[in-house]
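Z., the sequence and structure:
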Amino acid sequence: MTLQEQARQQADLLQAWMSALPEWVLTTRPDRVAVVCVDLVEGFTREGPLASPRVAEIIPRIVQLLRRLLDWGVPAENVVLVQDSHPLDAKEFQAYPPHCVAGTAEAQAVAELRALPEFARFQHFQKNSIASHTSPAFQAWLAQAEFDVVIALGDVTDLCLYTLALHLVTFGMANQQDWTVVVPEECVQTWDAPDHPGDLYHALFLHQLARNGVRVVRALSVGAES
């Protein structure tokens, strides 16, 4: 089998796996649920060199899910926003164009998140790399967190979302946390570029998360909706 044939076969397997993702009904007590949303900011959706219309499409789905979870009883304080906020001389700009500089519109949560009445009660953490766990404030929150389910949302699938979800599941394993890390596919996304086919990277990194213990589902509903 040629390399091209192997690649095509693997792509078909990924597509079949994605097509078979189930919907998951959340029946855990609402106060035992946490939501961590990474980088749903203007700089990855509408403004700046890394903004992507493809990523912007998940904004309404994430906001709708948050609304359902909050109305169901998940405390606003259990919702965590981890967001890029870079200094002008950020080392990350050696790998990516300057983006989400602290104090600019790009570093703000998208307007739809800011419009939620509970927004001020969310946990707000800033990061200076693709990895959420490099934020000392987020790490401090995580060290005392006790939940049954942690839902990871946001962008981009193969970078910030991937490192977030992988850290959540491996942190739980290392610390004997009996929690389930869930990623609803409809609430995460990555960008398209000539050297970065979005569909492939999106599916491949979700599959890798599933292989490492993350529960990847098509969509998430709460007990009252079942």
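The chain has eight helices and nine strands. The two ends are 46 Å apart (CA to CA).

Let me know what you think.
H.
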